[in-house]
Amino acid sequence: EFAQAVGAAYFGNKNRIEEITEKSYQAIMLDIDGVLRVIDQKMDIDGYFIEKIASFANKEIPVVINSSRNFDSIYEILLNSLKPHISDDAQKFISLYIAEENKLYLTNLSETPRQYVATIPVFSDEQMKSMQEIVKYFISAQAECKVKIVQLLSNNRGIRIKFTNFEEILGNAAVLDNLVARLRNIMKVQGITYAVAVNTGIYLEIIPADGNTKILAARHFAACFNIPPKRIACLADQANSLGVDYQFMAFGTGFSTEKAYGKDMVSIALKHSDAARWYMEHLKFESPYRILFQCIQDDIKMHMVLSAVLKLFYIPDASLYHKKARKVIEIEY
User: How many CB atoms lie within 10 A of CB 228?
Assistant: First the structure.
């Protein structure tokens, strides 16, 4: 039904969408801007998404906010609206990856103590000076691209460029590819391999090659929660190869809220929150903890108690399936 409903609205390979709709997903990973709200506009999250995220959490389907923001920013935009709709236990199924002072942390809606995930790579002082010179030269050579702002990100995290006509540049794949190709050539001539350019939808940012917090978060989540990457539905808007979201979307199963090119992403003829709403309505989800509970039951029938106990480790205490699994194990052993 999903494949038929998309019909001509799907931009990519029809076989691809049939493939991804044959399976269910065990978690949903969300960006905020360009997905839950219009990019670069300060506005409240639509009540539909509040209810839908609450519904996922109440069903013990992990929801992951992966937006590279700090906690205060995420809380102001989204989380204070969510809390009244979700029980204390279910709040633990909404994970938040937050960036604070060059470090990436994991917490959740119930605000449990933050777990350190990784140190975010930054430029050295010398590298930052070199990149400033390259950006200065790069800008001077661009006749068709008018630069509005050049901003140095704090703690040597990178350089942000905003164009006066950013929508025409960053929203046009051919123009953007050509622009970044010129920037890469300049860096190559200077022997610089430690920096990459990414499109955030508003800015062109130059960051350390391993400095994309979103892919760091996605890899950590899959490993920490024992969920196969391709069973994570990743919704974001910057889904082309230069997009800041591309790496984490390609790591999971990527559903773009913009038109995406290439076989790695799914996109439909809707944009931003409309596309996100469509995906949430049509994709199938099941709790990974229910799956683990079923596996534990099978292990116990086969008298594989150690295997069952190891699986129990991945079911959080707040889950109803944790209590059920413990009871199954304790009855037999």
Answer: 14
Chain mean position to CA 15: 24
Tokens read off for 232:
């994570």
Condensed to tens digits (0 to 9), the pLDDT of residues 212-240 reads: 999 999 999 999 999 999 999 999 988 77
Q: What is the CA radius of gyration of the chain?
A: 22
**What's the predicted TM-score (pTM) here?**
0.87
Alpha-carbon span 213 to 216, nearest angstrom: 5
Q: Rounded to an integer, what distance in angstroms lies between the CA atom of residue 324 and that of residue 333?
A: 14
- Closest C-alpha among 48, 93, 100 to residue 72: 100
Ramachandran area for residue 288 (φ above 0: left; ψ -120 to 50: alpha; else beta): alpha
| Alpha-carbon distances, residue 150 vs 162, 228, 245 (angstroms) | 7, 39, 22
Q: What angle do CA 263, 268, 271 make, to 5 degrees?
A: 120
Nearest to 121 by CA among 135, 133, 103: 103
Residues ≥6 apart with Cβ < 8 Å to 92? 108, 109, 110, 112, 316, 318
**Rounded to the nearest 10 degrees, what angle do helices 173-189 and 125-140 cross at?**
130
Task: State how far the Cα of 225 lies from the Cα of 94, in Å rounded to an integer.
Answer: 12
Per-residue pLDDT tens over the stretch 109-137: 887 789 999 999 999 999 999 999 988 88
